[in-house]
Amino acid sequence: MNVSRGTTPLRLVFSRIAVIMFLVVISISCGIHKPQYTIDDYVLVPNAKEILGNKGLTAFVFENNKKILPFQQFLINLYNLQTLNQREIPFTINEDQFTLHVYDTDEMEKYINTSDFVLKNQIPDASKLGNQSDFIVLSVTNNKNEDCLNDDSLYQNIVIKYLKNLKEDYFSNDR
């Protein structure tokens, strides 16, 4: 009695179809990318850096111009800071006290998924000044430690106007 344990043609067809379907699913899933966004002016990103009294601050994010003076050096000159590493900078708008929180590279990677953003202005490596990050990320709190960029904040409009002016002053160093 010689019983063949070979596969029938029908089984062979189904196994080939299964393999092909598996390869198609794998190739499609590897090819799917998350949408990426271009920041034209700035974007507000909620739930960023956590500080005492806040779940997560709202971040003001804009694309860096890496051909000009590094942003931290610009802040040193503007606010007469004593150190390059100062990340909390006090300032005043209409007699109200605020603190500008400047994110370093580690905080930016931890709290802001910058891979969601596409660089609008690609700059050749030879034109870059130093090792600057692609984006600048800032948050602002008031003297009560409240998030001033949050949609519910009464300070949101004046703080955004202040940050937009700060950004434009920084970019004016390009001339």
Could you estimate the helical fraction of the residues in percent? 25-40%
Poorly predicted tracts of residues: none
Overall 3D form: elongated
Question: What is the quaternary state of this protein?
Answer: single chain
Average residue pLDDT: 82
- Listing every helix as H and every strand as E from the N terminus to the C terminus, the arrangement reads HEEEHEEHEEH
- From the N-terminal CA to the C-terminal CA, the straight-line distance is 93 Å
Number of helices: 4
* Content of β-strand: 15-25%
Q: Which structural class matches the secondary elements?
A: alpha+beta
Strand arrangement in the largest pleated sheet = 2-3-7-5-4
Number of strands: 7
Largest sheet: 5 strands, antiparallel
What is the radius of gyration?
A: 26 Å
Could you explain how this protein is built, in words?
It is a single chain. By secondary structure, the protein is α+β, with helices and mostly antiparallel strands. It is built from four helices and seven strands; from the N terminus they run αβββαββαββα. The strands form two sheets. A five-stranded antiparallel beta sheet has the order 2-3-7-5-4, with helices on one face. Strands 1-6 form a two-stranded parallel ribbon. The longest helix has 23 residues. The protein starts with 8 loop residues before the first helix and ends with a helix.
